[in-house]
Amino acid sequence: MATLLTKAEDRAAVTAHAARLQHVSKSFATPAGRQLVLDDISLDVAPGEFVTLLGASGCGKSTLLNLVAGLDAPSAGAIETPGGRPALMFQEHALFPWLTAGKNIELALRLRGVERAARRPEAERLLELVRLGGAYGKRVHELSGGMRQRVALARALAQDSELLLMDEPFAALDAITRDVLHDELTRIWRETNVSVLFVTHNVREAVRLAQRVVLLSSRPGRVAREWTVDIEQPRRIEDAAVAELSVEITEELRGEIRRHGRH
């Protein structure tokens, strides 16, 4: 069986983009009429690229991620994910508590069609990748919050998707654990060459992780501005260059909030 790394690299060589959004809009029915949440979003994520999607609460970031994941359909426009269905990682780990760490990962492998005999070795390889070697038999209640998120990441990677969607996966963690997982995610992204679309409202997190930061305006969400993050990896949250760009992006974010009357 080919490894996740080899498959991701093979796919990146033949696809022009991991995701393409063309003039995507989304509205929902409300008692007061239809509410426009996203308006005319056009965005590409290149193979192997790490993009953070940033904006104020309620701007439609998670809605956009759900559309890319195929959990909902846009009201207008088109979304392409040439490598197949993306993997999705939520803020909550969503692990099954009656299964061990390894069996949670094996479930994703089974759904992917991996043969029974190959599942445990692959689950153990993925646990090693997220630096949880030896945790295969541990139950969810035996794992810390950070360890649970590592297992959730390993389960997402088990889907062997070209595109990994992450919806504020570290928001509920303490600062030190979050800092460690930033390092781990950066390492895993570089080792696997997977494309990442990462939603956050934390400006410094966005700058620390991404090659490109995309700012959405307040509702309806539109692409307000993009920044290419030309800062060598690995980065630290306290690095001067990270702080400097974070200040610039924060000012732009505050301007968007003021322009749309949100406080």
UniProtKB/TrEMBL annotation:
SUPFAM superfamilies: P-loop containing nucleoside triphosphate hydrolases. One of its GO terms (molecular function) is ATP binding. The keyword Nucleotide-binding applies. InterPro entries: AAA+_ATPase, ABC_transporter-like_ATP-bd, ABC_transporter-like_CS, ABC_transporter_ATP-bind, P-loop_NTPase. Coiled coil: none annotated. SMART domains: AAA. Residues 19-245 form the ABC transporter domain. Keywords: ATP-binding, Nucleotide-binding, Transport. PROSITE patterns: ABC_TRANSPORTER_1, ABC_TRANSPORTER_2. PANTHER family: ALIPHATIC SULFONATES IMPORT ATP-BINDING PROTEIN SSUB, TAURINE IMPORT ATP-BINDING PROTEIN-RELATED. This is Sulfate ABC transporter ATP-binding protein.
